[in-house]
Amino acid sequence: MFEFLQGKTVLVTGAAGFIGSNLVAKLIPLGAHIIGVDNLLTGRIENLAGFLDDARISRVSNFEFITADVTQPVASYLPEGKKIDVVLHFASPASPPRYQKYPVETYLVNSLATHYLAEYLHKTNPEGRFVFAGTSEAYGDPQVHPQPETYWGNVNPNGKRSCYDESKRLGETICGVFYRDFGLDTRIVRIFNTYGPNMDPTDGRVIPNFVMQALKGGPLTVYGDGSYTRSYCYIDDLVEYILRMTCKEGLAGETVNIGNPQEFTILQTAQLIHEAINPGAEFKADFKPLPSDDPTKRKPDITKAKQLLGFEPQVQFAEGLQKTIEYFRPIYAAVS
Ligand code: UDP
Prior knowledge:
This protein is α/β, with parallel strands linked by helices. It has helices at 18-27, 96-101, 103-110, 112-124, 162-180, 206-215, 235-247, 266-277, 303-309, 317-335; strands at residues 9-13, 33-38, 63-67, 86-89, 129-135, 185-191, 194-195, 220-223, 229-231, 233-234, 255-258, 263-265, 285-288.
């Protein structure tokens, strides 16, 4: 399945982030040489603790880590002319509170950095492969449900979420230009809500918020009346299919949704997390105003991922939730 990676040099941007660090962990045994880059704006170095010593020197022969900002030209952090075979561009703040705290960094990393990285690959190794972390936020507040890749979305170009949504959309544009006009093998994965180990417990997203609040005994902060929906994919499923998307021949220029189509309301999500952590205890919600431009619903149409990649999510929400709770439990114990 992943033979393509044998002997390849893979640059992972956002390597200390939630998805980036899980990609690195999955890549290390697959025979590639991995260069992880992160400026640690929202990435957490502890996500790579298994592979790095305190000086951030790798303990693993086929992994190296560079602390750098990919919104700067590639030559500022890679040795001159360094040959890269695969770029996995996963650097970006990703939770709404975090990308709203860092709007400029967010729009630059998804636009300018995408350009710099694609341009570098095209110049130094035109046969290279470029995989971009797209997002379900490209669909905005969708008027088509579930969302297929052919849907162009309903995004506010000048709202609180647009620094992320619109720059991810521009990142897709850049991938499209490099594919169509310059012949580079670019591929886009549109990632729907994902959860699991290495998430930042303080990033403000719904799963870490609810798990940390339930570990405290509640209440859980539900925005609006809790009727909005999301569909949650466990990180191992996501990473498996990002790498299939990376390795399979003949997918240049393709855009594929990856997410788990099982849909929950936010209130159901809160109740399930409460019940998993405090079974039998009274459920308490703290209802708060909805943030602006919060998409009312979200669910991936995964027909294309099934056809092209054989995508079949393996981890059900209850199982993934247990693993996520076990990841957060010691973190909660340390801060409480
Ligand atoms: N949400 C909530 N309480 C929280 C955090 C989030 O009700 O403590 C809601 C949020 O308003 C949204 C959904 O949960 O409708 C998912 O939010 P998240 O920040 O995880 O990411 P999004 O899918 O909106 O990008």
